Structures are given as C-alpha cells and as structure tokens.
Amino acid sequence: PRGPRSAMAGALRRFPWLCNVALYGGLFAAGDAAQRRWRGQPPDWAQTRRVALVALAFHGNFSYVWLRALERALPGRRPPAVLAKVLCDQLLGAPVAVLAFYTGMSILQKKEDIFSDCRQKFWNTYKTGLMYWPFVQLSNFLLVPVYLRTAYTGLCGFVWASFICFSQQSGDGTAKSVFMWLQREKLNADGESSEK
C-alpha cells in the first residue's frame, strides 16, 4: 500500500499542472489565514477566498508556466544557468507577481483605484522579496526536480503569502512593518505579564 507522500508524488507526476496550482492556491490561502491568526484577528473568510482566487487564477498558473519557461530557456543545474534563472526570476517574474497580487486583490475588493496598493507598496514589497526569493529560487533551481518546482515555490510561498497579505491589509510592504508589529506584540505581552 502506498502512503500519502508517495500518492502525492504520483499525483504531481500524473497531473502536474492541476496539483501544483491547487497546492499554490491552498498555501496562499493558508498564509492569509495564518497572518490573521498571528495578529489576533478573527478569520476573514471572504478575504482568504480572495487570496485563494488570486493565487489559483494567476500565481499558481504563472509560476507553473514561468518556471518551465525558465528551464527551457536556461536548462540545467550548472552555476551559470542557475544564477541566470534566479536573476531572470527576480528581474522579470517577481515584479509581475507582486503587481498581479496587489491589483488582483484590489479588483476583488472592488476598490475604486485598483492601482493604489501597487503605487504605495510595490517597491517596498519587491525589495523585501529580494531578501527572500533569490535564496528560495537558488535552492529550487539547484535541488528540486522540474515537476516539483511550482509546488516547492508554493510551499515557500506560504511564508511570503503571510507577509504580502499582512502588507496588503495593514502594512507598507516592508519587512520593517512586520518586525515593528512583532515588537509591539512582544512589548504588549511583556507588559501584561509584569502587571500580574
């Protein structure tokens, strides 16, 4: 009998697009739900559905096609090819993904100015991503088989989704805004424990 892990690996091989996109959407939705929980906020299932929809409709599909296109254009795991893929991903793929997230969320939230979040948060979010994604993609292109790359990106995307959902809802797109929030939470917790 096959275990869940081998069943998942088999499904990813037989239905790579469907499994990768579904996993990506689920992990982005989980990232949104997690960041709300970490902030002590009640679940906002409408918001989480919007995040899942943007991830399913765009991010999962884009990642699947993009990572395969990079592999066709720059095949192999030799250092020059891997570094070129990381560079292309950060210069071309990352800006598209950030723009699509903020714009897609604004459309689904029926904001009057769908580019407002992009104008306010794009550069900060993109620069924050440069502290995370190059390392993710370096390991992805060096170690992960092509058919699992979108799934791996989605798994790492859980952390990113938590950050970008926080930024979209209450941050400014910087890692500093998250760290400031975490510091406030720690100070509040320390203050409450000293009062007891």
UniProtKB/TrEMBL annotation:
The species this protein was found in: Piaya cayana
Keywords, sorted A to Z: Membrane, Transmembrane, Transmembrane helix
Protein name in UniProt: MP17L protein
Origin superkingdom: Eukaryota
Cellular compartments annotated: Membrane
Gene that encodes it: Mpv17l
GO CC terms: membrane; mitochondrion
Biological process annotations from GO: mitochondrial ribosome assembly
Mode of membrane association: Multi-pass membrane protein
Upper taxonomic lineage: Eukaryota, Metazoa, Chordata, Craniata, Vertebrata
Record-linked InterPro entries: Mpv17_PMP22
